[in-house]
Every structure is written in C-alpha cells, then in structure tokens.
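Morning, I've got a small favour to ask if you have a moment. I'm working through a protein record and want to make sense of it properly. The fold is given in discrete form, as structure tokens running alongside the sequence. Can you walk me through what the tokens say about the fold? Thanks so much in advance, here it is:
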Amino acid sequence: MARPPITPIDWTALFGNANPTEIEVGTGKGLFLLNAALARPNTNFFGIEIVRKYQLYAATRYAIRNLPNVKTTCADAKLVLRDYVSAGSLAAVHVYFPDPWWKSRHKKRRVFTPDFAADAARAIATGGRLYIATDVEEYYGVMTAIVGAMPAFKLRPEEEQRAAPRTEAGFATNFERKALETGGSVWRAVYARTSEPVTVVADPVE
C-alpha cells in the first residue's frame, strides 16, 4: 500500500489566526513556552517534546491557564521540522539545552545535526531567528560550528542577552535554572535567517 502524502501543518488553521508562529524543540516541562505565551499573546508557540510524560505535563500547564496561543505535540522534532513544517512558515526556532548524548553509539540521537540545522533554516522565514542555548560547552561548540558554516544564518551577538531566557523574568527552562543554581555556565547564541540558500554542512563531530 502506498504511503499517504504528508500534509504540512497549517498554522492558521491550528491556532485560528495568522499570527507568527515559533517552535520550541524539546519543551521538557514547558516553562519557557508557558512564560513566552503569557508575555507575547500575539505570537503562536508550538512545542515539540519526544517524552510523552513531559509533553502531557506541559500541555496541562497551558490548558489550566487557558492559553490559546501555545500547543504541543509528542514527536521527534527532527521529523516534524523535516516533514511537517512548510518552508518559510516560522518566525523562530528555539533549541534550549538539548541532550548532548555523550557516547559515540548514541550520536544518531543527537538533535542538533547539520540536517536538523538545514531543516530549521528552510522552515524559518527570512529575517526570522534561531535561538540556541546549552550548559554543555562542547555541545555549544558543535552547534555554533554547524550554524556558523551556513550562509543561511548570520550571528546576532547583540541579541544574545536581550533575547535570552532570564531566571528573574521567569523565562528560564528547568535545565537553565538547575545549571545556574549549581554554579554552572550557560552558552547562548542568536542567529538571523538570511536570504541565502540552505546548505547542509559537514558534521564537526565526525
């Protein structure tokens, strides 16, 4: 039997409006999206979480507060971006504290790969943003090496602190809070989507 054609997500139909849409990859318990949705009611937020119990926990938080501008799904974010997000349909993609998957045999589980970055670039409209943050310096080096080699993105260092989730403002993820409370460091970067074509660069981990 032939596989039915994949239909990209219609953001206007999903949210009932034509407001800009942003995706968070790996929502965890949903703290970032909760505060982002409250602070920016005219922006739609779509959270993707691969662990069902966390996705349900986050969805419950949003439902209790009756937030119409945030929705979630339990899925593999790499597949969602690749197959279900139309080109240029997003205002931003947020990737905060992805699991580094230290062991080489787990490399295939790593979220932030050259293919993922290319799919994010395709999905983000020109002028949109890619936000990344991690408490693992080595992983930060991998992510910035990948994105930095792509003409489709331009680093915006002046936006890093202004746009970064801040604990005192309630925008921190649970991972960020844990890192800061234990005296750890957090590395962040913000990239703007240029009008350059999307390319898949070499994987610096190989």
